[in-house]
Design goal:
The structure holds two protein chains of two kinds.
Chain A (H helix, E strand, L loop, with lengths): L2 E3 L4 E5 L4 E3 L2 E3 L5 E8 L6 E7 L7 E2 L2 E6 L4 E6 L8 E9 L7 E3 L3 E6 L1
Parallel strand pairs in A: 2-12
Antiparallel strand pairs in A: 1-4, 3-9, 5-6, 5-10, 7-8, 8-9, 10-11, 10-12
Chain B lengths: L3 E3 L3 E4 L5 E7 L5 E8 L3 E8 L6 E2 L6 E7 L2 E6 L8 E8 L10 E2 L3 E5 L1
Parallel strand pairs in B: 2-11
Antiparallel strand pairs in B: 1-3, 3-8, 4-5, 4-9, 5-6, 7-8, 9-10, 9-11
The chains are: A mainly beta, B mainly beta.
């Protein structure tokens, strides 16, 4: 079974600075998807960014980018020019692309605080 | 613009009660999921369904059951609520097949307290 680990329960960053959230996963599969979700205090989970494992190029969405290291099974999220609205719980998640691959496996989450 | 709706935002129930958590999606998604979220444990899958009347156990199904009579609705049932089921419950839905790449759409959660 796949597992996802986020080793940083809490992180903090100054407004306008850059922060990187770590995520590692364990799988024997070669094709899969990885996601970062954001959960603000409103509790609504929001998809931040996704990465398809067969793509070597790191995904980028505005101020959010990932560092995908397939061999190391690492998928970190970099937030540039941090804003107060980025404060939230962030979850890393894995999804198989094979049959029965509809479920997401989540990490424990990282609580990000943005200081003004 | 609401796409996944959970019937209650907060719920307080007594030990031993039968509890129903309802989830409705309007995106014609094949897959629907129930997770519970606890601090330090992330989201853990309780049950999921990939089609009407179909269900699969997740990682922590004990004490729960589910029902999916219509494609858009997926219900989580706590047969006899216990205090260790106090948690945040999140419903989600997704496409299958090539739609897997898009991840889930989540509801806004039900915070259940069992007293």
């Amino acid at each position: 079974a796949q597992t996802v680990t986020q080793s940083q329960p809490e992180m903090s960053v100054q407004e306008a600075e850059t922060v990187t959230l770590s995520c590692t996963y364990d799988t024997s599969e070669s094709d899969y998807y990885l996601f970062w979700y954001k959960q603000p205090p409103s509790r609504q989970m929001i998809l931040v960014i996704r990465q398809e494992a067969y793509k070597q190029q790191n995904a980028t969405e505005n101020r959010f980018s990932v560092n995908f290291q397939k061999a190391a099974k690492s998928f970190s999220l970099k937030i540039s020019d941090s804003q107060l609205g980025d404060a939230a719980m962030y979850f890393c998640a894995y999804r198989s692309s094979g049959l029965g691959g509809s479920r997401l496996t989540f990490g424990e989450g990282t609580q990000l605080t943005v200081n003004p | 613009d609401v796409k996944v709706t959970q019937s209650s935002r907060y719920l307080v129930k007594r030990t031993g009660e039968k509890v129903f958590l309802e989830c409705v999606q309007d995106m014609d998604h094949e897959n629907m999921f129930w997770y519970r979220q606890d601090p330090g444990l992330g989201l853990r899958l309780i049950y999921f369904s990939y089609d009407v009347k179909m269900k699969e156990k997740g990682d922590i199904p004990e004490g729960y059951s589910v029902s999916r009579e219509k494609k858009e609705r997926f219900s989580l049932i706590l047969e006899s609520a216990s205090t260790n089921q106090t948690s945040m419950y999140l419903c989600a839905s997704s496409f299958s097949g090539t739609g897997l790449v898009y991840g889930y759409t989540f509801g806004s959660g039900t915070r259940l307290t069992v007293v």
